[in-house]
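C-alpha cells in:
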C-alpha cells in the first residue's frame, strides 16, 4: 500500500496522510481530491519529510478519491511555497492556495457558457430589465457575474434569456492565446540600452539565477530594454512573467507590448472574470501562455517553463500585500527566480533603499541607464516656499505656479498638478459647532467627494450622502471643507484658467480600462491642458506636450512617523517630475512646500539622488531600520476592544528576552479602529542576525487565542 502526505487547504489541519488506491498514479505536486469527514477537499501531494502530520495507523487511512487533470506543481514552486510560508510566518496551505487561484480551473478544460445581450430592445421594459440593458452593454460573463455588474438578480437575467434579450455563448476554455513574435518590431536601441539589454540576453543564454537591478532615470527606455530580454526568453520558448504594481496602469503598457510583439500578453489580476481566469490559469500551467502580465498574485501561479521575471516600478508599495499572506512580491519574485534558476529584473527609476543596498553589496547586478532617450533632458526642479510665496486666501496654488500654468496654456503645452489626496477635502466640519464627520467603523475622517455628493471613508468604503443639516447642532448647509483634495484643486483651476481643458485623474474618476484609455489618448493628443491627479498620474505615462509639473503639497507624505515616509515622498515626487519634458520640449517642476530645507526636498531640488540615498541610509542605519535591521509587527484585532487589548497585553507580558530583539508596545495601532475591529500592535526591531521568525513563532505558539481575536504577523511591514 502506498501512503502519501497531502497538504489540504485548511490552515488548522495542515497536512494529512492518505492511502493511494490501486492503479492511481500520484507524485509530489499532484493535485488531488481527498475525503475529509463527510466532505471532499482539494489538496497537493507533498514530500512527507517536509511537512509534519498526525501519525495515523495504516489501517485507519482513507483513500484518495481522484487526481485532478492539471500538471503537478513543480518542485521549484513547492519550495517557493514553503519558503514564503516560513519567511512570512503564514500557513503553508494559505500560500499554496494562491497557486490554485482559480478553483474552477481544476475541473479541466473544455467549454463553458457565458451570456451577453442579443441587441434586441423592446419598446416596453420593466425598470430592472432596462437597467440590465443599460449596464450590460458590451459585457460577456456568467449569469452570476452579469448580475453583479447590472445590480439585478440572476432571476431577472434568466427571465431575459427566456425573452430573447440575453443569449448564451459557448466559450472554449482551451482556445490558445495568440503567439507573440519576438521579431515583430525590433527597436533600434541606443548604445547604453543595447549594452543593458545585452547583459540580460547573455544571462538568459548562459542560464541560472541572476538578479538584476535595472536602475534608469525616467524616460531612459527601461521598458524597451527589458522587452529585449522578453524577446530572448520567447526565442528560447520560455514563459515570461511581468509584474506591474497597479493593474490600472497596464493600459499604456499593453499598447506598447502589442506594438513590440504583435499580440497582447496574457493578463492576470483580481478582477478577471471567472472564465478568463480559468483559461489563463490552464494556459499558464500547460505552458501555452507565453508572456503573463499581472499584479502580485501572478507570482504564485504554476508556470510550466518560467524563464524570466520582470518587476516593473519595483519600488512601488503596492507590491506589498497587506492582508491574508502578507508578502512582498518584489522580494518573493527574487526568491522564485532563485528556485527556478532564472534571471529576474527589478526595474525602477527610484529603487528602494533595500534594493540599492543589495546592489551595493553585489547581490544584485546593477544595470544603469543614465540618460533619457532621444536627447530629452531631465526637468529642472525648483521649490516654492509657501511661507514666502503663499497662495491667495482660500487658494492652494502659489502665484508663481499659476503664472507658469498660464504660460503653458498660452503655448499650447500641458501642465500636471499632483496632490495625493482623493476627494474634495480631507476633513469636513460643521462651521457652527465644529462637528467633524468621522467614519463609524474606522479611526478616520470622512472625505467629502463633491462630484458624487458623498462623504466616504477611504479605509472601509463606508459612505453617506452629504447631510442637509449638522447631525450635532442642526445648522442647515453647515459644511466647511478643511484643506485641499484633488477635486478642490480642479475647482481652483477652473476659476483661474476657465478656458483650460482639464482632466481629473483619481481612482474615483478613472476606474475602468476604457476611461483610462480615453484619458491617455486625449492627453497624448494634447486635447487636455491641465491634468490634476493623485499618485495614479505619477508613473508610466509619456505625454509629449507635458512641460510643467506642480507638486501641490510636498509635505503631505512627510507628516506622520512612517518609517518609509521620506523614501516614499522622494519616489513619488521624482516619478511625477519624470512626467515632465519627456519629448523635445524641456520640462520644469515646481514643488510647493513649507520645508524646502528638508533633506528629501533639498535633494529633489538639487537633482541629487545620491544625496537623498546617503541621508536616508544614515537615518536608517541610526534607527536600526531596514536594510540594517529588521522590523516586524504583530497586530491583534477584535470587534471587542477589551478582548483585543487584553490579548495584546498577554502577548506583551510574555515577550521573549533576546539580546538582538527589542519589542515595543502593545499600543493602539495607528488605525486603532479599522472596519469595525479594534487593533493593538506590538513592534519588533531586530538585528539582521537574529532568527526573527523563529522567535516570533515560538513566542506566539504558546498561546491559545480567543475565537474572536485575530493575530496577524507582518514581516518587513510597510506601513506602521
Ligand atoms: P522608462 O520606462 O525608463 O521611463 P520608457 O521605456 O517608457 O522609459 O521610454 C521612454 C520613451 O522613449 C517611450 O516613449 C519609448 O517608446 C521611447 N524609447 C525609449 N527607447 C527607445 C528606442 N530605443 N527607440 C525608440 N523609442 C524609444
Ligand atoms: Zn471606515
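Residues out:
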Amino acid at each position: 500500500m502506498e501512503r502519501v502526505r497531502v497538504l489540504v487547504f485548511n490552515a488548522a489541519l495542515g497536512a494529512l496522510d492518505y492511502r493511494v488506491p490501486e492503479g492511481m498514479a500520484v507524485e509530489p505536486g499532484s493535485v488531488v481530491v481527498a475525503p475529509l469527514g463527510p466532505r471532499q477537499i482539494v489538496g497537493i501531494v507533498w514530500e512527507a519529510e517536509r511537512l509534519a502530520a498526525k501519525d495515523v495507523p495504516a489501517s485507519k487511512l482513507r483513500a484518495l478519491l481522484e487526481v485532478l487533470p492539471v500538471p503537478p506543481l513543480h518542485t521549484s514552486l513547492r519550495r517557493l511555497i514553503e519558503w514564503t510560508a516560513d519567511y512570512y510566518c503564514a500557513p503553508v496551505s494559505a500560500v499554496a492556495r494562491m497557486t490554485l487561484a482559480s478553483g474552477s480551473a481544476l475541473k479541466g478544460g473544455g467549454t463553458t457558457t457565458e451570456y451577453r445581450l442579443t441587441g434586441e430592445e423592446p419598446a416596453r421594459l420593466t425598470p430592472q430589465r432596462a437597467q440590465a440593458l443599460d449596464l450590460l452593454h458590451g459585457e460577456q460573463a456568467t449569469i452570476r457575474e452579469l448580475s453583479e455588474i447590472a445590480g439585478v438578480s440572476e432571476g431577472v437575467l434568466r427571465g431575459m434569456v427566456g425573452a430573447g434579450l440575453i443569449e448564451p455563448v459557448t466559450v472554449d476554455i482551451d482556445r490558445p492565446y495568440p503567439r507573440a513574435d519576438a521579431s515583430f518590431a525590433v527597436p533600434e536601441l541606443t548604445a547604453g540600452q543595447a549594452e543593458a539589454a545585452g547583459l540580460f540576453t547573455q544571462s538568459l543564454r548562459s542560464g541560472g539565477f541572476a538578479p538584476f537591478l535595472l536602475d534608469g532615470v525616467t524616460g531612459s527606455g527601461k521598458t524597451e530594454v527589458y522587452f529585449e530580454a522578453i524577446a530572448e526568453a520567447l526565442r528560447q520558448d520560455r514563459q515570461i512573467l511581468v509584474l506591474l504594481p497597479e493593474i490600472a496602469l497596464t493600459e499604456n503598457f499593453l499598447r506598447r507590448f502589442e506594438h513590440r510583439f504583435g499580440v497582447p500578453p496574457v493578463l492576470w489580476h483580481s478582477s478577471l472574470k471567472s472564465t478568463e481566469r480559468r483559461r489563463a490559469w490552464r494556459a499558464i500551467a500547460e505552458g501555452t501562455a507565453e508572456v503573463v502580465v499581472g499584479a502580485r498574485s501572478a507570482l504564485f501561479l504554476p508556470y510550466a517553463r518560467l524563464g524570466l521575471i520582470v518587476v516593473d516600478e519595483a519600488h512601488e508599495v503596492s507590491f506589498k500585500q497587506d492582508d491574508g499572506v502578507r508578502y512582498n512580491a518584489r522580494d518573493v519574485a527574487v526568491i522564485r527566480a532563485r528556485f527556478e534558476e532564472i534571471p529576474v529584473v527589478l526595474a525602477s527609476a527610484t529603487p528602494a533603499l533595500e534594493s540599492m543596498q543589495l546592489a551595493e553589496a553585489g547581490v544584485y547586478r546593477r544595470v544603469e541607464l543614465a540618460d533619457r532617450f532621444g536627447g530629452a533632458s531631465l526637468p529642472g526642479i525648483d521649490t516654492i516656499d509657501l511661507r514666502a510665496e503663499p497662495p491667495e486666501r482660500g487658494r492652494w496654488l502659489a502665484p508663481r505656479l499659476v503664472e507658469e500654468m498660464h504660460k503653458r496654456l498660452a503655448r499650447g503645452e500641458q501642465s500636471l498638478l499632483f496632490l495625493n489626496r482623493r476627494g474634495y477635502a480631507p476633513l469636513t466640519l460643521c462651521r457652527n459647532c465644529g462637528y467633524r464627520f468621522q467614519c463609524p467603523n474606522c479611526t478616520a475622517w470622512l472625505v467629502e467627494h463633491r462630484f458624487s455628493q458623498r462623504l466616504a471613508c477611504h479605509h472601509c468604503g463606508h459612505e453617506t450622502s452629504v447631510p442637509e443639516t449638522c447631525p450635532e447642532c442642526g445648522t442647515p448647509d453647515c459644511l466647511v471643507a478643511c484643506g485641499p483634495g484633488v477635486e478642490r484643486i480642479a475647482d481652483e483651476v477652473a476659476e483661474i484658467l476657465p478656458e483650460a481643458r482639464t482632466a481629473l485623474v483619481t481612482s474615483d474618476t478613472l476606474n475602468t480600462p476604457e476611461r483610462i484609455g480615453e484619458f491617455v489618448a486625449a492627453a497624448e493628443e494634447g486635447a487636455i491642458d491641465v491634468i490634476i491627479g493623485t499618485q495614479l498620474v505619477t508613473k508610466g505615462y509619456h505625454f509629449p506636450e507635458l512641460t510643467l509639473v506642480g507638486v501641490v503639497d510636498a509635505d503631505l507624505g512627510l507628516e506622520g512617523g512612517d518609517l518609509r515616509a521620506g523614501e516614499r515622498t522622494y519616489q513619488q515626487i521624482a516619478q511625477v517630475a519624470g512626467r515632465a519634458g519627456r519629448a523635445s520640449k524641456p520640462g520644469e517642476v515646481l514643488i510647493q512646500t513649507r520645508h524646502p530645507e528638508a533633506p528629501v526636498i533639498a535633494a529633489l531640488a538639487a537633482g541629487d539622488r545620491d544625496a537623498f540615498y546617503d541621508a536616508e541610509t544614515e537615518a536608517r542605519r541610526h534607527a536600526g531600520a531596514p536594510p540594517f535591521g529588521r522590523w516586524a509587527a504583530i497586530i491583534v484585532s477584535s470587534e471587542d476592544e477589551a478582548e483585543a487589548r487584553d490579548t495584546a497585553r498577554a502577548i506583551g507580558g510574555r515577550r521573549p528576552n533576546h539580546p538582538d530583539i527589542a519589542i515595543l508596545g502593545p499600543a493602539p495601532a495607528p488605525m486603532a479602529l479599522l472596519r469595525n475591529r479594534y487593533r493593538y500592535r506590538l513592534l519588533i526591531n531586530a538585528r539582521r542576525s537574529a532568527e526573527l521568525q523563529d522567535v516570533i513563532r515560538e513566542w506566539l505558539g504558546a498561546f491559545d487565542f480567543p475565537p474572536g481575536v485575530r493575530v496577524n504577523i507582518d514581516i518587513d511591514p510597510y506601513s506602521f
